[in-house]
Each structure stands twice: as C-alpha cells, then as structure tokens.
Design goal:
By secondary structure, this protein is mostly helical. It is built from 22 helices and 4 strands. Helix content is about 75%, strand content about 0%. The two termini are about 20 Å apart.
Length: about 525
C-alpha cells in the first residue's frame, strides 16, 4: 500500500474538493452580499468546476486498472463517476427549482444552498469510497445537512417536528449501520472493502490453517445490520417510518432533494458494500430471501398507502418508498448472480427515477408557490391554469408509473427482465430456491407497477379532467420553468435514446464486478 500522498490523489479527489470549496464560497457570499440572486448564481456556476473534473476523469483515466487514493480509501471507477455526475445534476436542478420557494418560505436561504452543497459532497463520497470508516463519515456528511434542511420553514411547527424526527431516526439508523460495520471488521480484521472481499473469498489464514468464512453466521448478521442501516436512507420497509411525516413537514425543495439525493446515495453505498465488499459471496440463500422480503414489503406498502393519500407530498413519499422496492429487485438479482445486467439496470433505473422525480417535484413546487396548496384537490384543472407546467408534470408522473413508451417503462422492463433472466439461469444451474425467489419478486413487482397507476393516474386526471378552482393563469418563475423543461426534455430524449444511457451504465456496472470476477 502506498502511504505517500501525491498530486494524483488530489486529482482523483478533485470533484469532491471543488464542491466543498464551492459550499464555503456560497456561505461567504451570502454572509457579505445578502442577495439571494447572487448566491444562487455563484452556486450554479460553481457546479461547473466539479462537473468538469468528473467528466475529465471519465474521459482521461484508464479504467482497465483500479484507481485508488488516500491509502485506498478513495475508489475512482466508472461507477463512482457516473453517480457523481448524477448528484451534480440533482444539485443544479434543485438550486434552479427552489429559488422562489426559498425566498418565500425558508428562513435561511444562503444556509439552505450551503447545506445542499455539503450534502452533495457527502453523496459523491458515498459513491467513491471503498473503506467502511470513510463510508460512514460520508454518510454523516450527507445526512447532517439534511436534518437541518428539514426544519428551515419559517415559523412552522411541522417543519421543526420533521427535523427532530429525522435527527432521532437518523441517529438510530447510523448506530445500526455502524454496528454492522463493527461486526464485519471484527470478523475480518480490516475495514477495506477489497480486503474484506478477499478474506471472505479465500478465508482467513491462521498459521497453517485456513478458516473459511463461507456461510459464517456473523457475516450474515453483519449483512442484515448493514441492510437495515442503509434501509433508512433508501426508505425501505420496515425502515421507512421517517419518510411520510418528514416529506410533508420539510420545505418542498428539501423534500425533493431527500427523495432523489438521499435515496441514490444510499443505494450507491449499499451496492458498493455488498458487491465490492463481497457480502454477496456467502450466505446466498438467506441473503437473497432477506433482500426479496424487504423489496416485496417496500413495493407493496408504498403503493397501497400512496393510493389513499390526500396530500401530494405524502403521496410522493410513499411513491418514493415503492420506487426503492423496484430498485431492490435489481440489487437482489445482481447479488444472486454476480452478473452486470442487474447492476446496469439498477443504475439506469436510478438515473431515470432521479430525472422524473425532480420533474414531478418541480411541478409541485410551482403549485405551492402559486397557490400555497399541497393537497391533490389543489391540482384541480391545473392544465387550464398552467398548461405547460401541467404537461411536464404529467409526463413525469406517467413515467414514474411506467406507462409505455416513457423512460420509466423502459427502466422497469430492464430491471424486471434482468431479474427474471437471472432467476431462470439460477434455476437451470441447480439453485432452484434462489432462482424462484427472484421470479416471485418480479411477479410481485409487476403487480405493484399496475397498482401504482391508480395514484399517478388520479393526479393526472385531477389536473386534466376536473374543473379548475379558479379561472386565472398561473405564472411560473424562470428557475422552475427551466428545471421542468430540462427534466421533461431529458425524459423524452431517454425514451427514444435509452441505448445511449445504457452505454454508460453498463461499463459502470462492470467496474463494480471487476474485482470479484478477476477482470
């Protein structure tokens, strides 16, 4: 192991370093200038720097070899860079979409943007760290700003309550995750994911004796605790209890940020730990069954409860829970077979989900700005009052529901097909129970996709077929209009050019499996 820091280490960390400096710069600009427009402009233009570093790394690094820095704690591969760029897109869209809302409802606008950028820094590190302690620190860097952002609505008891709940439940989940990491360290004697995977694969050498870790009960317990800890971040059942109340009480832009950023970062680290850390190599049957049960509960509860919600933010909270269940289908398939198809489908799904959810929430933010309402009935006749806003929001909702030929439909087809195909392959190879578990998972996911059309379709129906509450015309700010237009345009492009995105997600998925498969 190389113990000397070099210029190459700093280059590999450049995206995260630059966005950290940007967050500090935004804080200083807000302190001295006190003009929201200037603060937002600095934040938006500053994102070009970390984006340029990430894109440069993607184009210049030779990914046939591993790129590690800072004593192997930092891992820069195609998987990390793909997710870093995705997090920067989230930051840019949220800064654009939140401009008017923050000025109207949030009591500390400069702090809001600073916290958002610090949280994105943590998310980027969660995708590119290959060591347990640094993963945990990155998780806390992601989470602590989110706790504060949840309580930033002016003189609002629900917002303060949301922040307190988020802190308490977040602390509990962090403790559970840390306990799982501690068990894994106690079992293997290392916190390096590649080292853990090597020991799990080859066993621990004690003198002339090799102690195998295959089917080790402590490894299984550690895996369950790690799944539970990350389950909070991805709002998977039964670790979802924080999402509805916090989504409803937090500022709407913060809610949108929680629903995409926190979830994508949670999955980024979860997949990294279970794949690079080799936890999917042992205890395969109980691991697949455990993941399958969590996925089924997450999809089913999320969709059924979302269908009866009257508040749009609560509906989107339960919708977000259900979407996590679909992603877990692909994660389970990847763990079961170590094939890149499952991971590639997961990354494609996350990419599409982020864009469509940001578009849908941009519509909700626009409505909240114009009417102050967040109930489904407040959307009545919105198509006549704001036709372009309604069109963009409706397209994003239909994509989330998986209506063909939208990008959301393609992402679900990819993830379900990958899981079904790997299930059939496992059955053919003699692992009947594992393969059948995947097949059952796909069937349940298909049924849940149909159920989700109830509430997505209800919102679209209210917008287009119900009489408007007023006959006025709702105006939308430039920032919101831009974010909705960009997300809708991206959605349409992906719908017709899905292969272009898959050409990026496939190498990213392969880079995760390179160590385990000896490539």
């Amino acid at each position: 192991m190389n113990h000397a820091l070099s210029a190459n280490d700093l280059y590999l960390l450049a995206p995260e370093l630059s966005i950290t400096l940007l967050a500090l710069a935004v804080m200083m600009v807000d302190l001295f200038v006190k003009r929201r427009a200037v603060t937002v402009m600095v934040a938006l233009l500053g994102l070009i720097v970390p984006a340029a570093f990430a894109i440069t790394q993607a184009l210049t690094l030779d990914f046939s070899v591993a790129h590690h820095a800072f004593f192997n704690m930092l891992v820069v591969d195609q998987y990390a860079i793909f997710l870093q760029i995705l997090f920067l897109i989230i930051a840019a869209v949220m800064i654009l979409a939140s401009y008017d809302y923050v000025g109207k409802y949030v009591k500390a606008d400069g702090e809001f943007y600073t916290l958002l950028l610090f949280s994105v820094t943590g998310m980027m590190l969660m995708a590119s760290t290959g060591e347990l302690i640094s993963i945990y620190i990155s998780l806390e860097l992601t989470s602590i700003p989110l706790y504060v952002m949840a309580g930033l609505i002016r003189a609002n008891e629900r917002s303060a309550e949301a922040a307190v709940k988020y802190v308490l439940l977040g602390a509990m989940s962090s403790a559970i995750l840390l306990y799982g990491f501690a068990l894994l360290y106690g079992l293997t004697g290392t916190t390096d994911l590649m080292g853990i995977a090597m020991l799990i694969k080859n066993g621990i050498h004690t003198g002339n004796v090799i102690v195998p870790l295959q089917n080790n009960i402590m490894e299984l317990v550690a895996g369950i605790l790690i799944l539970a800890g990350f389950g909070f971040k991805i709002s998977a059942v039964p670790f979802h209890m924080w999402a509805p109340d916090i989504y409803e009480g937090a500022p709407t832009p913060a809610t949108a940020f929680f629903s995409v950023g926190s979830k994508a970062a949670g999955f980024a680290a979860l997949i990294r730990v279970f794949i690079d850390g080799g936890l999917g190599q042992v205890n395969l049957l109980p691991l697949v069954i455990g993941f399958s049960i969590v996925a089924i509960l997450t999809m089913t509860l999320g969709n059924f409860v979302a269908a009866v919600q009257a508040n749009v933010k609560r509906m989107m909270a339960y919708s977000s829970i259900a979407q996590a269940g679909y992603i877990l289908v692909g994660v389970t398939a990847s763990l079961a077979s170590h094939e890149s198809a499952g991971n590639s489908a997961v990354l494609f799904f996350i990419f599409v989900y982020v864009l469509t959810n940001l578009g849908a929430f941009s519509g909700i933010i626009a409505l909240a700005n114009a009417t102050g309402g967040e109930r489904i009935e407040d959307f009545r006749g919105l198509a006549k009052r704001a036709p372009l806003l309604s069109l963009g929001t409706a397209l994003c909702l239909l994509s989330l529901g998986g209506i063909p030929p939208m990008a959301g439909f393609i992402s679900k087809i990819l993830i379900f097909t990958a899981a079904w195909g790997q299930g059939q392959a496992l059955i053919s190879s003699g692992q009947v129970v594992v393969g059948q578990s995947l097949n059952v998972l796909v069937v349940v996911a298909l049924i849940n996709s149909i159920i989700s059309l109830v509430y997505y379709g209800r919102l679209v129906k209210v917008m287009y077929f119900d009489a408007p509450l007023k006959d006025d015309h709702l105006s939308t700010s430039i920032g919101l209009s831009s974010s909705i237009a960009l997300m809708t345009a991206a959605l349409i492009v992906i719908t017709f050019a899905a292969q272009l995105v898959l050409a990026v997600t496939s190498p990213a998925a392969n880079s995760l499996l390179a160590f385990l498969l000896g490539r």
